[in-house]
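Reply to dn_fold:

You asked what the input looked like. This is it:
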Amino acid sequence: MNFKYRDEGTARKIVSGIRDMGIESKFMHVCGTHQDTIVRFGLEEMLADAGVEICQGPGCPVCVTTSREIADAVTLARSGVAVAAFGDMMRVPTTIGSLFDAKAEGADVRIVYSIEDAVEMARGMSSPLVFVAVGFETTAPSTCVPLRSKLPENFSIYSCHRICPPALKAIFDMGETRVDGFIMPGHVAVVTGLGMFRPFSSEHRMPQVVAGFEPLDVLMAAYMLTKQRAEGRAEVENEYSRLVRDEGNPVARRLMEETFVPVDREWRGFPSIPRSALALRPEFAAHDATAVHEDILSGAPEVEAEAAGCRCGEVLRGLIRSEECPMFGGSCRPSSPRGPCMVSDEGSCSIAYRFSPKRAST
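and this is what came back:
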């Protein structure tokens, strides 16, 4: 157990409380940071002893971005448009290559740490620049802010932003895996509040707990979900009350509502999910890459959803563990990833490889 000394006794008490309820459960989280905490601190083994399994869900924004979207960005770069994106996006492979491949070929592909970096780059250029925006409700407000000011005419945004709840409903409706409750991402709820999760509990009788990212947060979330099951409840509870408020962040929510419109879109490993992605509203068409560069994107080549043998889609749906993919730790490693779950720091395969060296070497 890799806890700080003062937390170890509390962790054991929480796990003992779960064990005493005598209920076996399978919970799903939808956050790469939760997965990092679970694996890094050995929570899987602790909770398994108490009858609880926690599986990975579609919580890594880079991972759920489709090969089609990555291929669009690669196509823009190869067509002479400068492309700026976060570092995790650069190495995601597709059957026509990655953004790093395009850069190696001479395309203008740039790593940025924020959309503001990309805007400043565009100001110093005469040619077009596209920022590839990824992330859930946590990062979407930051994409909104520059659109409230005077942007350079050569700057546009290719939005890959996603919304959490529709993907969870898709998992429930697809019926592929039994899930007894969800651990919801605290950083998303800081923005959205709790309201958007409640219909899923009321309509589908699904217990949910919004949790923080320390080991004790995750253990308490598992305890609270187990207690809901023991008492026959299905509610949205807030474990992360030190930061999450019921109403969320009204300013950030208003920014998203004024900037984006929910649209149907595929996720990696999923069919098209209704109203699960965020597209720029028509009034921002002058800075929407899908409109500004429609001619280039219409000619983007078709790509396979996954590389041959890659099972990232099944990992993201909670059907298999990363270690169950036959390529894990062999042909698929951080140095030679075959799918995004091995690329992103929030990807389940990357986390398993970095923190489970014995399993990674098998």
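The longest strand covers residues 272-280.
Hope that clears it up.
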